[in-house]
Design brief:
By secondary structure, the chain is an all-alpha fold. The chain has a single domain, classed as MFS general substrate transporter like domains (Growth Hormone, Chain: A), CATH 1.20.1250. Helix 3 runs antiparallel to helix 5, helix 6 runs antiparallel to helix 8 and helix 15 crosses helix 18. The longest helix has 31 residues. The chain is globular, with a radius of gyration of 22 Å. The two termini are 23 Å apart.
């Protein structure tokens, strides 16, 4: 028995496994898992920004009307709504690793089929199916990393994963700038963008076959021996490298069996007082309605509102930026260039979140970055030169990815292990539904009233979001997720 196992009394109940994981130092295995998850998220962000980036090109190639363009922009997000609901439940019932393999496999195949689209209808259907595959990627990734990372380092390493992930946004922008004017091998450049997404995600699928299952999920689902073996292996790797283990102020499962709310340990959803050896509170299998049960209802409603409003600011810009630039009178290629340069702010913003995400309360960072997005967005709306468009666009994407990185960490910390992926998938599904509605809501505002009115709508949404999180959201920085 390892030293840390003995310190936990040899217990392998879910929270005992969680306590061992939380006091563990960062090991090479943690870094490998974070990198593999980050590469998969790269193609999620690539997918999320693909249709919006090449929207004007598709409109010309297929002679889209206004309705067809909105459907193409919305189809992937509608698919993601379906995928988030479905694959989140699969992850809680059958394991995080299996859900990862299903979602990337479906996305890779359907993205390749999208490259072969002969007409608008085929493209809309394949974008929906590809979205269904990739839809749970963020929810699954957040839950998996929250499961395996120590509490004190969780925010920083999830932010690292998203720093890698958000390189996918400028990647799709510059790839479109390069490929759209060309026709390699006689095939339209935009079709190669879909092929790149399919090929890359197939490589990630192979990498993810080597992922370990979440020890927390194994322990919560009756596989205590398997969970203990995985955690013991991680502890042994840390010991072999001479890494020191953190000693928590109060270890769950101690003799008095009490949990300190001040230190972040909370009562289970049924409101009872328990030690970490208590049985899972949600029954044999997770149920979606449990997220509205006692102890979770307010938290769930806050997160649902948060997810619906956040995409207005985040995807509202990423999806419609080329349309806004076109409305200012710039051509397709110039618009793609401005958009690609603006998108460089995505990975930079995520990187800027790294040194602060575990030092500043999540709710405060969310509110501050929301306010910064509003200021940069209004500047982008009023910009009347190419330089100002790029500067304000870069500032917006930078601020939005500080916001996004801390948001992903915050959402991953809200629910117990047994229902984490189901609950997070439900919240994310609402964000995808909201994103699907954006072209139908925001494009008419842009067409009728201009970019200023569009960003006024975005500003109002972000103001409500920040106020809700500050007044009703839970504090989660550095707290255990069990």
């Amino acid at each position: 028995m390892s030293q840390t196992t003995a310190a936990a009394g040899g217990l392998t109940a879910p929270a005992a496994i969680g306590a061992r994981l939380d006091r563990m130092p960062i090991t090479p295995l943690h870094r490998r898992l974070t990198a593999v998850i980050g590469v998969g998220l790269f193609f999620d962000t690539f997918e999320n920004n693909l249709s919006g980036t090449v929207g004007k090109v598709l409109q010309n190639d297929f002679a889209f009307g206004a309705t067809s363009l909105k459907l193409v922009l919305a189809a992937a997000f509608l698919g993601q709504f379906t995928g988030s609901l479905t694959l989140g439940r699969i992850a809680d019932r059958y394991g995080r690793r299996r859900a990862f393999l299903v979602n990337l496999g479906v996305y890779s195949v359907c993205s390749l089929l999208g490259a072969l689209s002969p007409n608008a209808a085929w493209l809309i259907v394949t974008r929906f199916l590809a979205g269904a595959g990739i839809g749970a990627e963020q929810a699954l990734s957040d839950c998996y990393l929250a499961d395996v990372l120590p509490a004190g380092k969780r925010g920083r390493f999830i932010a690292w994963a998203y720093t890698l992930a958000f390189c996918g946004v400028p990647a799709v922008g510059f790839a479109a700038l390069w490929l759209v004017p060309l026709a390699p091998l006689g095939v339209a450049g935009w079709r190669w963008l879909f092929v790149l997404g399919a090929a890359g995600s197939a490589v990630v699928w192979l990498l993810r076959r080597g992922l370990i299952e979440s020890p927390r999920w194994l322990a919560a689902n009756g596989c205590a021996a398997a969970a203990d073996r995985l955690v013991s292996r991680m502890e042994a790797e840390a010991a072999d490298r001479g890494l020191s283990f953190a000693v928590p102020a109060q270890v769950p499962g101690s003799a008095d069996g009490r949990l300190s709310r001040r230190r972040g340990w909370s009562r289970p959803p049924d409101g009872s007082r328990t030690s970490d050896t208590a049985p899972r509170p949600f029954g044999t299998q997770p149920r979606l309605r449990d997220v509205l049960g006692p102890g979770l209802r307010r938290r769930t409603l806050v997160l649902w509102l948060f997810c619906v409003l956040s995409v207005v600011g985040y995807y509202g810009f990423g999806t419609l930026a080329p349309q806004i630039v076109a409305a200012k009178g710039y051509g397709i290629v110039a618009g793609l260039g401005f958009t690609a340069l603006s998108f460089l702010g995505y990975p930079v913003g995520s990187a800027l979140a790294l040194p602060v995400v575990d030092r500043v309360e999540r709710r405060t960072l969310i509110a501050l970055s929301s306010a910064a997005m509003v200021a940069a967005g209004l500047g982008f709306a009023c910009a009347d030169s190419a330089a100002l468009i790029v500067i304000c666009g870069f500032a917006y994407t930078l601020c939005s990815n500080v916001f996004s990185s801390v948001s992903h960490v915050y959402l991953s910390e809200q629910y117990p292990t047994t229902i984490r992926a189901t609950a997070a998938g439900a919240a994310y599904s609402l964000s995808k539904l909201s994103a699907a509605a954006l072209p139908f809501v925001l494009l008419p505002v842009l067409d009728a009233h201009g970019a200023g009115a569009l960003f006024a709508v975005i500003a109002a949404a972000m103001a409500v979001l920040a106020l809700t999180v500050l007044t009703l959201g839970e504090r989660t920085t550095g707290t255990p997720v069990d």
